[in-house]
Specification:
By secondary structure, the protein is mainly alpha-helical. The chain has 7 helices and no strands. The model has no long low-confidence stretch (mean pLDDT 85).
Amino acid sequence: EAFLEQQRGLAPPEMRSMLQSVPFDWVWLAATDSLASGLLTSFAICFPIALCVLLLVTGNVVVAGLAVFNFMLIVSCIMGYCKLVGWTLGPSECLAGIIVVGLAVDYVIHFGHTYLEASRVGLTTRVDRWAYALSTMGSTVIAGAATTFFAALVMQLCQIQFFNQMSTLIMLTIVYSVVYSLFCFMALLYLIGPQGDFGSLPWH
């Protein structure tokens, strides 16, 4: 519109009623901008909501806070990869980004929930709880990660770009989730995880 107004000012009086006629591209450009801003908005909304849900589910402030912290690290690494390889926030990237956000928190929550459930079998120290969570849920997390990773790997054979990008994002999410859940989240639980009823909410 600004360019058209500039041309109207330079045009002779007979041509100042010029109009622009555009195809669907301009409308799609606005939709793309909305998707990009919507992705960032969804990130700003999902982290506080994830914290509230985790507080209700786990009933422990420390575990919920550490889980959300790891969740943010995983999402940051995934979006950093997209920036590194030069992917712009187009419709397919935004849609894929929204979908993989749900996968990022999966394994962290498995370990956190099992860590807290260890108190039901009489384990109260963080080291005992850490060992219980790792021995009980470790193989399950690895098996689940392997099946999801290889399922996404098959999508690399697709010729449509969206499915290739979606496959890449899912595999990255799985890799980062396993790495951060095992070597960051579990390490944090081993060092500063709650002992006894520390950090537990009154109603839990």
